[in-house]
Amino acid sequence: MSEFVRFPRTPHLALLGPVEVREDKVMTPAEAEAFLAEEVVVEEKVDGENLGLSVVDGEIRAQSRGSYVELGGLSFRGLEAWLRPRAARLAEALGDDLVLFGEWCAVRHAVAYDALPDWLLVFDVYDRRAGRFRPLDDRDELAASLGLAVVPRLATGRFTLSELEAMIGRSRVGDVPMEGIVVRHVACADHRAKLVRPEFVEAIDEHWRSRPVVRNRLARA
After folding, report:
1. How much is the mean pLDDT over the chain?
2. Phi, psi of 46 (to 5 degrees)
3. What is the pLDDT of residues 72-82, one digit of tens each?
4. Which residues pair with 107 in a beta bridge?
5. DSSP letter (8 states) at residue 107
6. Would you say the C-alpha torsion 79, 84, 85, 89 has a positive or negative sign?
7. In the CATH scheme, what is the code of domain 9-46+153-206?
8. Where does 47-151 sit in CATH, by number?
9. Pairwise CA distance, residues 92 & 60, whole Å
10. Domain spans of the chain?
11. Average pLDDT per block of 10 residues along the chain, 221 residues long
């Protein structure tokens, strides 16, 4: 059986308000300054359920954070039907080495989306053989070959913290404020950090599982 790959927690580049975070790391000002000295890619942080797809014993398996999951549960409503026509192509493309990570957005969490390109938005591809995440151009090429959507890209370059904060505007996949952004080094996709709206951090206290299930919506054709 292929080694299980747990998606790492992404540290906060900074906190944008007087909020508390529980288990996430927050970079020191010096760490953030060093991080932003490199060229970065900025993408929208989408609010859904962390989903990993990989091949186990010849079949596609789904995982979330620290374990494999059974299809059909609340967190991944609709995933089984979504996977069925795509499983063979995914298995062939991923093989034994690759793990595809994305955000499963069928069920509304704290942010309501009404213009999703698909229920899954890919944000990473991990290469077990190389022991690292694939460059984002490779991720995009793989996703395109499989007909999968990726998270919205906002900008590439060198930015200050205030410039990055100003990018947290309207979502590209719904008429709502973004949850936040994910910032990665162009030279190494493993090096990433996030900036999250204070209102979203506070909304986590009212967990979506305690509310009636509401589905997000796909963009109109």
Report:
1. 90
2. -100, 140
3. 666 788 999 99
4. 215
5. B
6. positive
7. 3.30.1490
8. 3.30.470.30
9. 10
10. 9-46+153-206, 47-151
11. 85 86 86 97 95 94 88 79 95 96 92 95 97 96 98 98 97 95 96 90 52 84 52
